[in-house]
Write a structure and sequence with these properties.
By secondary structure, the protein is an alpha+beta fold. The chain has 4 helices and 12 strands.
Length: 240
Amino acid sequence: MWLIAYYRPTALFSLKLAAATSSGGRTLICPTPFALRMALLDAAIRTLGATEAQRLWPLLRGLRLKVLLPDRLTVINTFTKILRLKKDGRSDNTGNGPPFNNTIAYREYVSFGGDIGISVQTEAGDSLPDEVAALFAQITYLGKRGGFLQLLDRPKYIDQEPDEAEGWTLISADQTQFKIDGTLQMLDDCSSKLTFEQANIYSGKRIVLGKDRILRHVVLPYRLARSSRSFSLYERIRET
């Protein structure tokens, strides 16, 4: 069984590649499996407590994930002013100068042209525990802070796997089929070895990219329809 939840974005979405730098980097156009699992884990810790969240972590880590993006989405390109910590400390002799430098950075933001669907299934293929299904109502943003979204209705179960012909894309496993003219995305995900202590940002245990946090090459069924210096418009590839 698959649990499906639909969300309406209420703000721009932005989520850079795992290997991107702070001064630049293109945004992904799709929430990653890692971001979705961390959002569920965060909701579990806030509503159920750390002990119960730790018990549920193996289930959250192993969920199969599919996403459904709207027919159109636009990536907005811009430069913005940021504050960057000075590497050599404060600039004046007294040591009381500002510790930050003013600089500019390249940023991209995604404007979704409709609602987003998220579907999940356990590794065993059975229904989720009620406490896990309730976590989807607690997800309020994905990607960077400020990428807000709103749950539209109570999540529902369906017996059949969401159809890829309708635009659903599996993002939690390697693809066996994809559209040759689609858009390639490098989405990060949790490996089967990622522990709750590593996922807990307060434990101090590191997450190693390529070992605990892996990259999946996923081709989304979208093509670049139009672009300029300030934006890129993507449209879903329809079946012919």
